[in-house]
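FW: tagging you since you asked about this chain on Friday. Here's the raw sequence from the shared folder, copied in full. Didn't touch anything.
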Amino acid sequence: MILELAILNVKKGLEKQFEIDFDIAGKYISSIKGYKGHTLKKCIEENNKYVLLVNWETIEDHTIGFRESTEYLEWKKMLHLYYDPFPTVEHYETIIQNNTNS
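HL: got it, structure written out here
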């Protein structure tokens, strides 16, 4: 499993509309082969900063399957206007995982 991580800096004053549009745009990414789920988290200290975490089966499911799809064009059309600067996207693989039993 691959974790995609992107820090999203949204233009100030557009946070609420971004959250609405991001929720709608979720249908585009979730329809892609290899997609395993995503989470959007909002920063407490900086109201216009978010982190996007997406789980993929393989890196290619994201970099080729999603990024080269018509669904990505719709995602881009809905969301890319909110970012300043444009996000850096990185991919991670699990090396150590520790889960609690609570």
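FW: The CA atoms of residues 49 and 96 lie 27 Å apart.
HL: agreed, and DSSP finds three helices and four strands in the chain.
FW: great, closing this out.
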